[in-house]
Each structure stands twice: as C-alpha cells, then as structure tokens.
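Contributing: when you submit paired examples, paste them exactly as shown. First protein:
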Amino acid sequence: MAHVHVHTLHFANEAELTRSLGEVLESAFVEDCLVEPAELRLRFLAPPKSAARVVERIYLHGGLTWCSRHQIR
C-alpha cells in the first residue's frame, strides 16, 4: 500500500486560501480535499512526493502561515 500524507495548511486570508485550493484541485495526485473557510484552512491527502510539490508551489505564492504533514497510511 502506498504511503499517503494529510497536509494541513493555514492561510493569511481568504484570497490565498482560494488560490491555493486551485493548486490542490489541479493536482492529479490529490486523493481528497477539505476546505474550512472560517478557519482559513485547507487539508488534502496525497502521496508524499506529489504533496511536497503542491505545497512548494503554494508556499512560493505567499500567504501560507502554517503547514503540517502527517502520514496516515
């Protein structure tokens, strides 16, 4: 069974959350995604290497205030 991580990302504002959601949804490797607009939070499941590329693109755009990663399988 392939490893999958859940990434939890927090953003500075709603515009950054919305833009980052687009990055996540464009990835063919993301298995699932949850958006929590009131908390400016986005969670997604993906294999580690693919998720790292998505998070790096989001980070380079700015507005990311916190990111955590946990292996779930």
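Second protein:
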Amino acid sequence: MLRDTLKSGPICPISLTALLNDGPANQVVRAEVQRPTHLHMHHSNPFRTLLIIPIIWFCAGDSTLAQETPDTIASYLASGAFDGELGLLSISHEYRGSSDDSGNALGFLQLQYKSIETWGLHWGAWWYGVKSVWEMHPGDYERLCKADSSLRECFVSWNLPGTQTTATAGRFSMRQTTIDGRSHQGIEIVSNDITDITIRAGAFHRWSRYNRIHVNFQGMTGWYDVDAVHEDAGDLFWFGSIRKDGRDSDYIEVFGRHQDNVMTAIGTEWNYARPVASDRRVGVDGIFAYYVNDWPEELQPDYENAYTWLIHASMKSESLSLGIGWHGVSDHTADIGVGPYFWIDPLVADNTLPYDARNRAQLFYVDAETSYGPVDLTLAYGYGINQSIEVDSHEFNAIGKVHLREDLSFEIMVSWNLYEGNLLADYVRTGTLLTFEF
C-alpha cells in the first residue's frame, strides 16, 4: 500500500516547521547517567530558515514538474529505495537489593525512503514508531519513552557539480567521536576532492539523544535545542574534522567541536593495522580528546579543562577478533557529557565512567568478536576504577545475533554490572530484539 502511495504523486520529504519541531519539550532522560540539562525550547531561530529553504525549493520544484509530467515523477519516486522493519524488543534492569527494577516489551515499526539522485540532488526520510506491549511496573514505558514516534531523518543532499563534495541539510545523523545523539537537525558538508582526504564540517541546532532500535535499547526522546544546556549557551553546535586514509583500514583524523559558553573539544583518533600471517592482522586504534571549559564562571565556578583517552590493541582473523584496551578520564572537574557532547565509552552500561563531573576514572577491558555461520557473538569484560567516588566496578557483556533468514534476525544482550561498596546497587541489564526486514 505504501508503494502505491509513492507512485501516486510527489512526496515532500518534510511538512515544514511542524515536522521540524515534532517531539515533546520534556526533560532529557539518560537511561544510565543523569546529566544537568535544564532544557528549554526556542522556536524562533534564523538557522532553521537555512534548513527549510532548500527543502521547500526541492518540494516545490517536484510539485510543478508533477503537474507537467506525472508519469515521469511516478517513475522517479518508484525508482527510489524503500525499506522497513517490523519487530519486537524488550529491555530490563534488575537490581540486587533495590526496588528500582524496570522492564518493557515494545513493538516497533520503521519506514525509510531514499530517492535516486537527480541533477545532483537526492532526499530521504526515516520514520519510527513504538508501542508498549508489556511493562514490569506501571510507568516503566513512560520513563523510557518520551515520544511514541518521530521523523528522525528528513534531508536533502546536493552533490556539487564537478566535485566530490556533498552538502546535506535537514535531519540526519551527524554523530561522531565526542558527539552524542542519534539524529541532528542542521547542515553538513563532506568533501573528498583531495585523494585519501575527507574534510567534514557542519553545525546543528536541534538533536535527539535516543531514537534508534537496538538490542541495548536506551529509550526514545524528543527533539531538543542545543542551547538547553543553560540560558547563556550558544544556539549552534559546530563541528569539523580532517581524515587521512592510509593502507587498508588505516587512518588518522583530527577533529574539533564547539558550542559558545559551554565547551570546545579537540582531539584525534586513529587506526593502524598490519598482517602478521596470511590470515591474521594486529593493530592499534585509539582516541584522545581534550575538553576546554567555556562555562560562565557564575554558573560553574569549579569547572576545569579535562581530557579523556582510549587505546585498544587487537588481533583479527577472518572469523575471530581479540582485543585489550585502556580508557580513562582525567582528574578534573568538568561535565564532558553535557548537552550534545559525549565521552568515550567502549562498554555497554557501566554507571561509573564517568559517574559525574568529578571524573578521575579508568577502565581496563578485554573484548572478543566471532562469527560462525549465521551466528555473531561479542563478549567483553571491563574493570573500572573511579577514584572520585572510590568505587571499583566489574562489567560483563555478551551480545549474540542469529540470522534466522535473510530478512529475519534475533539478538540478545546480557550485561552484568557489579560495584564494590554500598554506593551503587549491582544489576543485570537484559535486552532482546526480533527484527523482520521488508
């Protein structure tokens, strides 16, 4: 039925400001870590006009063309790619010695469309909806899902003539190292005109932290302004990076992120690997990020600059990967996960890295991935040391995926989290995901 609708006429990828502002103005809720957000909404923003103009132009152009050559437009729409997912997921938190247990089972539907490229332009949209099927306690669903549905992607991309540069405007994922969120509303330019070099730059003014279906389901949130951090925060989040690709999967990248009166993050990430046998490779990858505090002193007089790092060594064969890593956050007071910023977390659900703005924590971990026929398995163990709250932690993660058919898969995740002392309660986080693709 959807394909019949697509063939009946042109579709504008966005319903102007109404769709660009969907989602409740509720307080952002992070499943594992509470962060000061103080959210508020601003609906008058000139940056939004820059996003709407190219989309209106593209939609208007399609409407005129549709009246003149409806068969051509119908063929154009039918030539695009339409995909969907239907499934059932569950997620639960069970604590030892605490009454804070929670659990949900949810049905979900995802629909995605991407047009073919015409005159250098293409557009796409991605919608999701969730429906509560079961909850362990009344209110578990409302605490996890602040929105039942959202248009999480709705964008127009233009490949500049005679170049390998693409400009994209609208809603889509701009998530990168140190940037939180699964969807962002803004503009991004990506250039590959220099051999083996990728230059990326952009800005966004709204974002959605959680709106992806995953076996480690973190919930569904609405859309929030980046300046919701505090009343003097800048209303744009800027980012950029330069990446140099080397042999095979080797690369090195330098990046920067900035929001006025909040923070500037600069850093680098890399991957380097070489063969040691016909079927084995060893490599080292890592990230270093430095966070420059820019909070007004009257709001956060104790905030400092901070840094974080991750170094990971691995050995890989065709069906097996083994690794060991070290991650840490410096002994400085700073909220390196405020608003759209994010720290580096190689594991699933540990509450202590970082625990709060005091930081001063390290994590030592090992991980393994293997595939055998239709089964994929990921295992990890991490030993965390948070000196600011004097808590050591142990986290065990196991994630398995079975490809039952080409269009049907089942995933399960179990994460055990154990804490020394009485500050935090031990818990088990469990997730399952059954997905049918069409």
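If you have annotations for the second protein, write them as plain sentences, like these:
The first strand starts at residue 81 and ends at 95.
The radius of gyration is 23 Å.
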